[in-house]
Amino acid sequence: MKRIGVMTSGGDAPGMNAAVRAVVRRGESLGVEVYAITNGYKGLVEGEIHRLTSNDVGGILNRGGTMLFSARYPEFKEKEGQLKGVEQLKKHGIEGVVVIGGDGSFRGAQSLSNHGFPTIGVPGTIDNDIAGTDYTLGFDTTVNTVVEALDRVRDTAGSHGRVLVVEVMGRDAGDIAIWSGLSSGAEAIVIPEKPFDINQIIKDLKDGFAEGKNQGLIVLAEGVMPAAELVRQIQEVDHTFNIREVVLGHIQRGGQPTARDRVLGSSFGARAVELLTEGKTGLCVEVVDEEIVTNKFDDIFNNLKHEPKLHLHELNKFLI
Amino acid sequence: MKRIGVMTSGGDAPGMNAAVRAVVRRGESLGVEVYAITNGYKGLVEGEIHRLTSNDVGGILNRGGTMLFSARYPEFKEKEGQLKGVEQLKKHGIEGVVVIGGDGSFRGAQSLSNHGFPTIGVPGTIDNDIAGTDYTLGFDTTVNTVVEALDRVRDTAGSHGRVLVVEVMGRDAGDIAIWSGLSSGAEAIVIPEKPFDINQIIKDLKDGFAEGKNQGLIVLAEGVMPAAELVRQIQEVDHTFNIREVVLGHIQRGGQPTARDRVLGSSFGARAVELLTEGKTGLCVEVVDEEIVTNKFDDIFNNLKHEPKLHLHELNKFLI
Amino acid sequence: MKRIGVMTSGGDAPGMNAAVRAVVRRGESLGVEVYAITNGYKGLVEGEIHRLTSNDVGGILNRGGTMLFSARYPEFKEKEGQLKGVEQLKKHGIEGVVVIGGDGSFRGAQSLSNHGFPTIGVPGTIDNDIAGTDYTLGFDTTVNTVVEALDRVRDTAGSHGRVLVVEVMGRDAGDIAIWSGLSSGAEAIVIPEKPFDINQIIKDLKDGFAEGKNQGLIVLAEGVMPAAELVRQIQEVDHTFNIREVVLGHIQRGGQPTARDRVLGSSFGARAVELLTEGKTGLCVEVVDEEIVTNKFDDIFNNLKHEPKLHLHELNKFLI
Amino acid sequence: MKRIGVMTSGGDAPGMNAAVRAVVRRGESLGVEVYAITNGYKGLVEGEIHRLTSNDVGGILNRGGTMLFSARYPEFKEKEGQLKGVEQLKKHGIEGVVVIGGDGSFRGAQSLSNHGFPTIGVPGTIDNDIAGTDYTLGFDTTVNTVVEALDRVRDTAGSHGRVLVVEVMGRDAGDIAIWSGLSSGAEAIVIPEKPFDINQIIKDLKDGFAEGKNQGLIVLAEGVMPAAELVRQIQEVDHTFNIREVVLGHIQRGGQPTARDRVLGSSFGARAVELLTEGKTGLCVEVVDEEIVTNKFDDIFNNLKHEPKLHLHELNKFLI
User: Fold this and answer.
1) Which residue stretches of B161-258 are H helix?
2) Do residue D13 and residue D122 come from a single domain?
3) Minimal CA–CA distance to A171: which of A118, A121, A130?
4) Which of A66, B288, C79, D266 is disulfide-compatible with A16, CB 3.0–4.6 A?
5) Phi, psi (5° rounding) for residue B40?
6) C95 and C193 assigned to the same domain
7) How far apart are CA C28 and CA C23, in angstroms?
8) Which parts of the sequence bind ADP (chains A, B, C, D) (predicted)?
9) What is the nearest CA distance from D26 to chain B, expressed in angstroms?
10) Mean pLDDT of D200-212
11) Are residues C92 and C114 in the same domain?
C-alpha cells in the first residue's frame, strides 16, 4: 500500500486532529503517502482530496475540532454515492482509507469496505456511544469541559440557594452525565440507561438542604428529556425549590484535547495505518482494558453492546 | 466606627469574595470589627448576621460566587422592610454597612443611607452596566469566560462551515458582547446601544466565506433579542447558511476571578471601609481611568450615564 | 467496625480530597463514623484526630492539595512511633484506618497492619510509581497540567527557533514524561526506564529544523538527570542550538483534579471503607484494566512491578 | 502609503499576534498592503520579507507567541545593519514599518526613523516596563498565568505547612510581582522599586502561622535577586520555616492571550497603521487612562518614567 486517505465525518471531537497527525506521520514512517479527504463523505464524493505531509500536521496536536472539516451527507447511504466515492479514491491512486467518526460514519466506512475498498475506522465522538470500545476519542475532553462548567455553575447556584438541572450531551448514552455528575458531586444523575424516581430526587435535594447544603445539582443526559421538561416535572411535585435549567450546548464539543485524548488519538491513528498496510479492512480500532484492539464493523453494529459504567452511577448515590 | 457589616446582593459576580476579604482585613487593620450579613437584604431583615474574622476570609480570594450568599427580596423596596433592616443592624451594634451588588442593590443601600444609616456601595455585577464606573467587579472575569467559550465553539463551527449566533449576558448593556466579540474575531457584534443592519451582517458573513473563512460568528447581547430570534431573522433573508444559536447561560457568571477582578475587588473593598471610618455615606466606590473614585448613589441613578466602549465596536468592523 | 480514621501522607496529589470525601460519605452510608488524622503520621502520633462529617467534606471534591495536610515523619519507621500511633487510634475508639499516599506511606500502613491494626492503603501520588496499579491518584491531573505548561512554552520556543529541555517530575518513574511528551509532540522523551542516545536526539532535532519546524522540545524525567545537565551534554556534542532548560517544579503538583482523578479518588475511597468493614487489612486498593482491585502491601513491595507504558514511548518516535 | 511592513522583536508576548492581525486587516481597510518581516531585525537585514493577507492572519487572534518569530540581533545597534535594513525595505517597496516589541526593539525602530524611514512602535512585552504606557501588550495575560500557577502551588504549600518563595519575571520592574502577589494573597511581595525588610517578612509569616494559616507565600520579582538567595537570607535569620523556592520560568511567557490583551493588541495594531498612513514616524502607541495615545521614542527613552502601581503594593500589606 503506497497511498492512503484520511477523513473525519459526523460531529467533530477533540483529539481528531491528534489522530489525523498520527495517520500522516506513522504513514510516512511506513513509506505510505497520506491524502486528506476534506468535509467527510461529501468531500469524498466531490473529490476534495489533497496531499498531507508531516509538516501540514505540525502544531495541530493540541487543537480542538478537525482540520479536515466535516459535513452531513445522507446521500452516502445510497449505493450511487458510495461508488462515486470509490471512484474518486481510485482516481487519486488511493488504496485504503481511515475514517474517523461515529456510528453513522462507520456505516459509510463499512459500505466502502463492502465495495472492496480497504477501510479502517477510528471511533471519534464525544458521546462514548460506540459498541466494543471502552472510550471514544473526545470523551475524556468533553467530560472535563463539562466538569469545569459544572464547577462554575455551582459557584452561582451556591450563592443563591438554587437547584440547577444541567442538560449535557451524549445522544442516547448516559456516559457524559455519569462521569461529569460523579465528578461534580451531583445530587442526582439522570440517564437513559436507568429509570429514575422523581420523588427520590426531590427527597435527596431536600435532605441536602436540610443538612446545610446551599445548592443542588442534577445532571441530566440529553437522551432522557430536555432540562426544561425535568424542571417542569419536579415543580409539578414540589414548588418550593428555587430551580433553573441550564443547557450546556456546543461548548461541550470544542476545546483543546486532554492528554488522554491526545494519546488515544495518536494510538488510534497510528494503529489504523498499520492495519491498512497489513492488508486489513472492515475493522475499527478500539480500546479495551487500556489495550488498542480491533473489532469488525459488523460486530460493532450487530453483536457488541456499549455498556456505560453503571457502577459509577451507583457509587454516586452513596456520595451525595 | 467600631463595627460594620458587609453583604452581597443581587446576582453574584466573580471577585465579590475578594471584596469581602478586603472589607474584613482592611477593617481589622483600622480597628473595626466586621460582621457578615448573609443572603442579602432578606438576611438583613431576618437578622442573619454573624462575626467575620480575618481567618474566616482566608482562601476565598480565588473563589467564584459569594461566600455571603445572595437572594432576591423585592420587599426591601418598602419602607417597612428598610426600617426592620436598620433595626437589625443597630441590634447587633453595627454602625455602617458595605453593600456589594448592582443597581437594584444600590437602591436598597441608598434607602438605608436615607434613613441615616451609613452605607457605602461596591459595584459588583458581571454586566458592567453601572453608571459612573469604567468597570464593575466581575466583568473582566466574565469576558474571559465568554472568550474561552467562544474559542471552543469556533473549533466546532470551523469544522462544519457553520455560522453561530452566540447570545451573551449583559442585561441592557452591550459591554460583554463588545469585548468578547472583538476578542474572538466575531464577524458581527449586535448590541442594544447601536442599531444593526441585518443585510450588512449577511453580506459580511458571505464575504467571509467567499474569502475562505470556514465559519462565521455573531456575538449577540441578550438585551437585543434572543439568539433564536436573530437566527430566524437571518434565515428570513437568507436560507443558505448552516446556522445555529448558542445560549451561553449560567456558565458566564461563575468561575475563579481573573487577576484584574481580584485586584479591583481588593481595592474596592478596602476603600469602602476607609470611607465608612471617614464618616462618609450614600457613596459608591467606582473606578475611573484606573483610579478608585467615589460617586453619590444619587448621581449614579440620576446624573451619570454608563457608556460602553463603542469605539471597540467600531474597531471590530475593520478587523473581520 | 463503627469508627475509622483517614489520613494523607507524603507528597500531596490532586484527587486526595475526592478520596477523603468518599471515605467519609461511603462510611456514613455504611453506618461508620469517620475521623480525620491530620498531618500524616506525625499527626497520628501526636493525636491530631477529629471527627469528619458529611458536611465537612462538602465542596472539597474539586480542590487540589489535601484538606488533611501532610508532613514528613521519618520517626514512624521506628517501632516506638508505630505503637504510639496505634495507641492514639485506640484512645479515640478508632478500629481501622485508610492511608492515602505513596510508597513510603504504605510502609507505615503496613507496620500498623502488622501490629494488628486494620489498615487499607489508597495510592495517591502524582508520580504513578506504585507497583500493581495502572494509575495512581493525581497522575492524570499532573499529566494534564504538564501538557498545558508544555503547550505554553512551545509558543515561546516556536517564536525564537529554540530547543527547550523541560524537566518534569516522576521520581524514578518516566510515566509523566512519557504521557506529557507524547501529548505535546516532543522531539525526544528521556526516561529512566530506557537508555537514550544523545546523538540520535541531536539528529532528530536537526532533522526537525531541516524539515521546517521552528522549535524543538525534549521532555526529561527528573529521575534521569537535571535539565541543566542534559543541556550541557547536548552542547558538548553540538553548539549550534539555541537551547534552554525549563524546570517545571511545584506547579505540577497542585491544581483542581481532572474528572478522571475525581472519579478514581471517589472509587478508591469508597472501596477502601468497604474493605475495612469487610474485615480486611494490609491491602491497597488499586486499578487494573479499569477495575478497582486489591493487592497486599507485601506484594506491592516485593512481588509486583510498576510498568510504564513503554509502547507509548516507542510510538512517540514515529510521530515526531 | 501603499505598502508597510510589520515585525515582532525581542521576547515574545501574548497578544502580539492580535496586533499583527490588526495591522494587516486595518491596513487592508485603508488600502495598504502589509508585508511580514520575520525573525525581527535579523530577518529584516537578511530580507526575510513576504506578503501577509487577511487570510494569513485568520485564526491567530487567540494564539500565544508570535507568528512572525523573533530573534536577538545585537548587530542592529550598528549603523551598517540599520542601513541594510532600510535598503531591504525599499527593495520590497515598503514605505513604513510597525515594530512590536520592548525597549530594545524601540531603539532599533528609532534608528530606522532617524534614517528617514517611517516607523511606529507597539509596546509588546510581558514585563510592563516601558515608559509612558500604563500597560504593555502581554502583561495582563502573564499576570493571570502567574496567578493561576500561584493558586496551584498554594494547594501544595498549604498541604505541607510550607513557605514558598516564588520568583516571577519582570526584568527590572516589579509590576508582575505586585499584581500577582496581591491577586494571590501573598504574605510578602518583594520588588526592585521598594526596599524590603527581611525581619518584617519573617514576622508577617510567623504571625500568619500563629493565626492559623497553613502556608506562606512570598512573591519575588526577578529584578531583586534569585529566589534561592532570598531563601538563604531568610534562613540566615530564622531556621524554623519549612521553606522552598519556586522559579516559574518560561511558562509565564506563553499561553493564549486574555480578552484584555486581545483588545489591547487589536487597538494598538490598528492605530499603528493609521499613524503611518497619517505620515507619522518615530512614535509609539501606548495606553494611558484607557485611551490609546502616542509618545515619541525620544520621550520614552529620556523623559518619561515607568511607574509601577505602588499603591497596590501598599494595599497588599493591609490584606495579609
Assistant:
1) 175-183, 198-210, 227-237
2) yes
3) A130
4) A66
5) 60, -145
6) no
7) 8
8) 21-25, 154, 185-187, 213-215
9) 6
10) 95
11) yes
- What number of other Cβ atoms are within 10 A of residue B193's Cβ? 18
- Residue B42 and residue B115 in one domain: yes
3-class SS of residue C116? coil
Residue D66 pLDDT exceeds 90: yes
Statement to judge: residues D112 and D32 lie in one domain: yes
Q: pLDDT tens digits for D260-313? A: 999 999 999 999 999 999 999 999 999 999 999 999 999 999 999 999 999 999
CATH of the domain at A59: 3.40.50.450
To which H or E segment does residue C318 belong?
helix C310-319
CB contact B313 to D (< 8 Å): no
Give C-chain residues touching D247 at CB under 8 angstroms.
Answer: 247, 249
pLDDT tens-place string over residues B273-305: 999 999 999 999 999 999 999 999 999 999 999
Beta strand segments in chain C, E? 3-8, 33-37, 49-52, 96-101, 119-123, 163-168, 188-190, 216-221, 243-247, 283-288, 291-296
Using a CB–CB cutoff of 8 Å, tell me whether B59 touches chain A.
Answer: no
**Beta-carbon pairs below 8 A across chains B and D:** 109
Is B66 touching A (CB cutoff 8 A)?
A: yes
Q: State whether D254 and C161 contact (CB < 8 Å).
A: no
C-alpha distances (whole Å) from C162 to each of B264, C75, C158 are 38, 47, 6
**Burial of D50 (C-beta count, 10 Å sphere; 0-12/13-18/19+):** exposed
How far apart, in whole angstroms, are the C-alpha atoms of residue C211 and residue B20? 56
Among residues A195, A229, A253, the one where a domain terminates is A253
Quick one: which of C254, C309, C197, C303 has its CA closest to C17? C254
Nearest to D143 among B259, B289, B320 (CB): B259
**Tens-binned pLDDT, residue by residue, of chain A (320 aa):** 999 999 999 999 999 999 999 999 999 999 999 999 999 999 999 999 999 999 999 999 999 999 999 988 999 999 999 999 999 999 999 999 999 999 999 999 999 999 999 999 999 999 999 999 999 999 999 999 999 999 999 888 889 999 999 999 999 999 999 999 999 999 999 999 999 999 999 999 999 999 999 899 999 999 999 999 999 999 999 999 999 999 998 899 988 999 999 999 999 999 999 999 999 999 999 999 999 999 999 999 999 999 999 999 999 999 99
- Co-location of B13 and B129 in the same domain: yes
Q: For residues B196 and A39, give the distance between their C-alpha atoms in angstroms, rounded to a whole number.
A: 33
Residue pair D173/D125 in contact by the 8 Å Cβ criterion: no
Helix/strand/coil for B316: helix
Q: How many domains does chain D have?
A: 2
For residue B313, tell me if it sits in a domain: no
Domain CATH code at residue D232: 3.40.50.460
Q: Look at residue D7 and tell me if it is in a domain.
A: yes
Q: Place D254 in a pLDDT band, splitting at 50, 70 and 90.
A: confident
* Whether D127 is catalytic: yes
What does DSSP say about strands B49-52 and B33-37: parallel, antiparallel, or unpaired?
A: antiparallel
> Is residue C315 in some structural domain?
no
Q: Are residues B205 and B232 in the same domain?
A: yes
In the predicted model, what is the mean pLDDT of residues D77-87? 96
Domain interval for residue C98? 3-138+257-302
Residue with cell 487597538: D267
Question: Is C45 within a domain?
Answer: yes
Q: Report CA-CA distances (Å) from D274 to D22, D29, D145, D299.
A: 11, 10, 32, 21
Interchain contact, B140 vs D55, CB within 8 Å? no
The one-letter amino acid code at C156 reads T
And the C-alpha cell for A113?
469496505
Residues B92, B168: one domain?
no
User: Per-residue confidence at D72, pLDDT binned at 50, 70, 90?
Assistant: confident
Cα distances from B310 to residues B189, B259, B307, in angstroms, run 11, 25, 8
Neighbours of A302 (CB within 10 A): 9
